[in-house]
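Lab notebook: predicted structure, single chain.

Context: the supervisor wants predicted structures on file for every construct in the current expression panel, including those that have not yet been purified. This is the next one on the list. No modifications to the sequence; it matches the entry in the shared construct table.
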Amino acid sequence: MFTSSQSSACPACGASDADWLCSNQFCGKTWHLARCSRCGQHYTDPLPSSEEIAGFYAGEYHSGLRTNASAEQRFRHKFERYASFIHRFVRKGGRTLDIGCATGLLPKLLQDAGYRSEGLEFNSESVKWGCEHYGVPLRVGSIDDPGLTPASYDLISFTDVLEHFGAPLQALTRSRELLVDRGWLFVTFPDILSIESRYYQCLAQFLRRDWLWFTSHIPKHVWEFTPATARSLFAKAGFEVVAFQRAHELISAPGRLRSLTFPPRLLLLFGDRYGTRMEFMLRKSK
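Prediction complete. Output recorded below exactly as produced.
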């Protein structure tokens, strides 16, 4: 680990000087978590193609969510927290669009709270299930869907999804076009430099087992963010950070490995200060 590499150019700044921090075998290919020496951006190297990214989420992806009990039990608390955060800034009755909505639980919660909510999702089975069970307007697609009307949404949300995009700056720029004047953007993803993530990184280094870095999700996370690199991306796209909060969620490890996750469990007591999850409320700049 921490070896110099002949990496692909940093997707954030274009520099070619990066370090490989860990590796992962997935879909018959070796992927590396690279950190740009110039701007500090973490990213998957080599960068997966759009076809490879689409393949990551095809077929049975989300299959475990397509039951009422599973979705409610695993994600309701998190999405209720997201909805409460949104309520503080976005007027009731506003039109909202959730990108990468999975089965549509967040749009459902927002609809129940009085918003005109919609969702877009890559996985057609998840869209079908969500429409049937939650009764919210979901459809297959993404932020680059040409059918979306400019200046028509009060809020666009990317909850644990922007890091999966090959070109997040392009996605945010497109979001800016779709938002009304001074519209809102809600974005969440993990902090690759959080206390929890650093713990697992050190554990992986010490035991020489890259896969123990549980908070590194390459190649599905094409990008891994820190507070600094996230704010840099938002500013480039024309957004200002209005509010920021953290949260912590337990990582589940199988069998005897569960004992290794005990130290980070203490972060539950201080999740709002040191938690790995970063949650940003942004506003379209003037």
